[in-house]
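Sequence in, structure out. Go.
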Amino acid sequence: MGMTGLHKSQDDLQAAQLLFIHGAGSSADFWHWQRGTFPRGHYLDLPGHRRNAMWDPEWQNGEPSMLIARYAAWVARYVEREHLSDVVLNGHSMGGAITLTLALERPAWLRAIVLTGTGARLRVSPHLLDLLRTDYPAAVDAIIESSFAPASIPVNYAQKVRRNGTRRQMLRTPREVALADYEACDTFDIMERVREIRLPALCIVGDQDAMTPIKYSDYLHRSIHGSLLEVVEGAGHMLPLEKPEEYNRRLVDFVSTLAPQTP
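Output:
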């Protein structure tokens, strides 16, 4: 479907409320290239990330996996406060873990889910966790290096802009917040529960995603009855940034198939 299809589908998109949840150490700025196609979407900064200063240090106490549940509860409060319904949750990476957590609870306002570059389990390398504790700029560099598809040689202007922009965005997130995010991802595991999800779902991933490889999305697809699997060529973990037009087209196609919920 070309750009004409994108415009033609705008009426269909109004039937659902799209809510975008960023990944670990990131912010709502991650979805920059989606805002034009989905201008009425809700783009959240999770607590402590970018413009949202609400970060309770107590969230870091106890098991790190509890942070995913606390983020999920925060998202649910946002949805309820805004009186949203027919919500399509789109979570990237850690945002996908939050989305999966809410999908298991199946709140009445949830219509469908989009799982972008994520998995039912999100292990993080011990080396990266150590860098996050000891040398945050080096950790961010390592994340950037692993998150994008291999760059052309020489690196072109668009690749430089997207990599440098993502680096600046992550460095604006306090180290303790990013560390808590990645520790939470490392403990996240719903491998044995994902089959309980009964919602329309789109699992979408870049074919060169080294952080959450295709096999992660394939497992979600095989486990969630009736889900769709989309693999975008030439993209890594930062798929919505790397291939925005292709990503947006596939998201429009999915959302346009959803009928509004009936009471």
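Check: The two ends are 32 Å apart (CA to CA). Residues 3-256 form a domain with the Rossmann fold fold (CATH 3.40.50.1820).
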